[in-house]
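Following up on my earlier thread - several people asked me to post the actual chain instead of describing it. Fair enough. Here it is, all 341 residues.
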Amino acid sequence: MSQEARIFYQEDCNIAALEGKTIAIIGYGSQGHAHALNAKESGCHVIIGLYEGSKSWKRAEEQGFEVYTAAEAAKKADIIMILINDELQQAMYNKDIAPNLEEGNMLMFAHGFNIHFGCIIPPANVDVAMIAPKGPGHTVRSEYQAGKGVPCLVAVQQDATGKAWETALAYGAAIGGSRAGILETDFKTETETDLFGEQAVLCGGVTALMQAGFDTLVEAGYDPRNAYFECVHEMKLIVDLIYESGFAGMRYSVSNTAEFGDYITGPKIVTDETRKAMKQVLKDIQDGTFAHNFLTDMSAAGSQVHFRAMKKNAAAAKVEEVGAEIRKLYSWNDNDKLINN
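Reply from S.P.:
Thanks for posting it. Predicted structure:
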């Protein structure tokens, strides 16, 4: 990848490159349904590949798709986009996709994990590419329906046909990505930065910070509901301001009191020790330690013992109990709809 990564827009992408090709979307969850519906509405021929007995099978059929087993879909397809959980991809690929790949096919991913860490090793005669929307599936879908798009990353790991970039960009345009911009990257960069961002900031860092703030106020004797509003609920308000106008826009919008506290207190929370820990997190991602631990725990032998225990402990936290109570008061609440679906 060049030092100055390219950004592609509508005029750089030719959806016509997908004409006459069959796209198989493997998986019909959050990303799968969005990619499939968007590409279909962009005029592409899309089929769905699922395991027998999948609860998504009927839903995909009801939304107008031909549905096959993953192996059947791979056999019929020219382009195969794998959109199932990272920990399930290797076994599914070896069983269902590898035996059905044909020369000139394109194998696609929305995350570089299995290619970068060597879990999946495609044959040399197929294209290997990535289109990774930088947003959850329901946003990929809703933005497309609104005539907009979610920014995507694009990477080509293997260009066997000489047309991998053209095909990948056409796919990115078909799901709406080129309306917002498609940024050039590579599998290594996407995988390592995505895992780091999730762990150190977006999921692990933010939730741990909110949890610690909530606990500090509650332990000091403040009403847990008050603590929830101040340390959890209002996070969205701040993030929305940052999303719209960056840190400067957020600081412009809050009070001088809040901005002053931001400057003097942030460095007390994110200390040199915190930054040292972040560097270790990144090192564990780069050298494969995290991937090894994750895949081991997710394997049949591991039986997700550690993962399930962490999930159970997190769900039992006081902040979750108070949050569930508070969210029932919201006029727009729909019974924690993200969890129930």
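The first helix runs from residue 30 to 41. That should answer part of your original question.
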